[in-house]
């Protein structure tokens, strides 16, 4: 029986080593989780966000229509490490090239448009994130 959690840890190490050779510990991204909402439902107040660091490999792909013709759009995709405490979800925001310790509300946040997990045996080892550009 495979230990998919151990494989996810190996994949994390591999992504860190190939993500960006100019970054000594891989190419970081920061995932932003919104804070808990408090107060009345008609006027909720969002608490402080939580930031988590993941590492990625970045790619761009020109999009084609069903006939194979380029349509003038580019898909920006990040293949990111999987960590149980930092599961990316559609509509969350990320900041590329910075760690959680460097992130703040003024960072350049990008919305996640789509999340595709690679999850053999139901345990995610990687995620592909399509970004809104």
Short description:
This protein is mostly beta strands and 133 residues long. It has one helix and eight strands, in the order αββββββββ. The mean pLDDT is 84.
Number of domains: 1
- Corresponding CATH architecture: Beta Barrel
Number of strands: 8
Strand order of the largest sheet: 1-4-5-8-7-6
- Given as residue ranges, the uncertain stretches (5+ residues, pLDDT < 50) are none
- Provide the residue-averaged pLDDT: 84
Structural write-up:
The protein is 11% helix and 43% strand. With 133 residues, it is mostly beta strands. A hairpin with a 6-residue loop joins strand 2 (37-38) and strand 3 (45-46). The chain has a single domain, classed as Elongation Factor Tu (Ef-tu), domain 3, CATH 2.40.30. The protein has 1 helix and 8 strands. The mean pLDDT is 84. The chain has one helix at residues 4-18, and strands at 27-33, 37-38, 45-46, 50-64, 70-81, 93-96, 110-118, 126-131. The radius of gyration is 17 Å and the shape is globular. Strands 1-4-5-8-7-6 form a 6-stranded antiparallel beta barrel.
Fold topology:
Layout: H1 4-18, E1 27-33, E2 37-38, E3 45-46, E4 50-64, E5 70-81, E6 93-96, E7 110-118, E8 126-131
Antiparallel strand pairs: 1-4, 1-6, 2-3, 4-5, 5-8, 6-7, 7-8
Name the descriptors.
single chain, 133 residues, mainly beta, two-stranded antiparallel sheet, 1 helix, 43% strand
